[in-house]
# Entry
Amino acid sequence: MKRDFAQGTSDWLSSIDVPLFAAIAAMPAVALAAHLPSHLLLPAIAVFAFATAAISAGLGWMTRTTRNAATVTIWDFAGACVLVGVAAGTLSESVQVSQLLGVATTAP
# Structure
């Protein structure tokens, strides 16, 4: 059974399987969770989600994937990553972000 995820050009990048791309993108997130302290996890997930969204949107733009296709495209994955990034950024506190960036070392 052939799934038609991308409606773009015949370039090999336009036929990327979105669940496979999501699984590959989740691997560094698991590494983040294993190596960061728990209070820095939400800001790190927000940064990682925005970076993943930027990469996948750039990939969708380079392959000229149709944005309004009837199936799941790389653009949908980029939008989901932005949603996760906004949620994680909203729930994190400014002290946690400054600790993640190395500006502050302890909470006031």
